Amino acid sequence: MAFARLLRASAFALAAPLCVSCPGTKPKEAAMAHAPVRIAFLHHSTGEAVWKGGLAPFFEAWNARNGTDYRITEQNYPMAKGNHPRIGALLPARVFNAIFRDHYPWENNPYDYWNLWVAHRGQDRDRSEANLDDLARDFDVIVFKHCFPVSSVADDDGAPSASSRRRTLANYKLQYEALKARMREFPRTTFIVWTGPALTESATRPGDAERAQRFAAWVKDTWDEKGDNIFVWDFRELETDGGPYLKPGRSVSAGDSHPSEDFAKRVAPLLGRRIVDVIEGRGDTSSLTGF
Questions:
Q1: Strands (E), 127-207
Q2: Are 130 and 77 in contact (CB under 8 A)?
Q3: Quick one: DSSP state of residue 149?
Q4: How far is CA 182 from the centre of its chain?
Q5: In a domain, 285, yes or no
Q6: CATH no. for residue 69?
Q7: What is the pLDDT of residue 28?
Q8: Is the N-terminal amide bond of 36 cis, ω within 30° of 0?
Q9: For residue 259, what are the β-bridge partners?
Q10: Mean pLDDT of the chain
Q11: What is the rounded distance in angstroms from the CA atom of residue 170 to the CA atom of residue 99?
């Protein structure tokens, strides 16, 4: 599906008013028509680019136009600051990491969500990072994602394990199945996960790209199920038009797979619309890309 077509359709969708009780919708859970709705957007650098592309202004405009009260908050996750969040906010990351070693690594792969949300729960946290109990207590909707290293998917090693940091398709699937079971323990919280951001052709290998593409397809077609509290935003489709690589012109450069500023501005409203559709009970019937 061409990205230009998505943009034309999204312009129409953004102009249309929201309908909480539209006929034919079949929400996974009761639509959150009450206000306010507290939304957490957990990200690192790729998500930060989309956030800066206009996600907060999207919700400000949407609330003003539709009388809703959807409150979105962004935060780095994991924060990778340990017990030193104030100092970490002041020092450059390179300096902070050279001084302090007792913090979580700057990683948000499937393993890391499994580790932080499944392996650690209740009062048990890994190096002061919030676990799912903490996040679900503070937010009604949790939007989370991985950065583009998730698309460096190696060959399976024949010993799949959810507790393995190795980025393989088999490990990813085990980690995601465990995450799904864990998220379903919080039926009053809604989750939206991005499909994994792609890499440019020059930044990956064909086998890795093909496995990353297969993982994204599995997430959408098999892992995600109707009738629960978990949804998908298909960011990868917007990046790749269904191919294995991030399209030229949509990244910072051929060697830098972060989204370009222009591309981030184009997709931020699509993420906003996808979140709104999920909040209002249309997550199972509306487009995964948000158009």
A1: 141-144, 190-194
A2: yes
A3: G
A4: 17
A5: no
A6: 3.40.50.1110
A7: 43
A8: yes
A9: 251
A10: 87
A11: 36
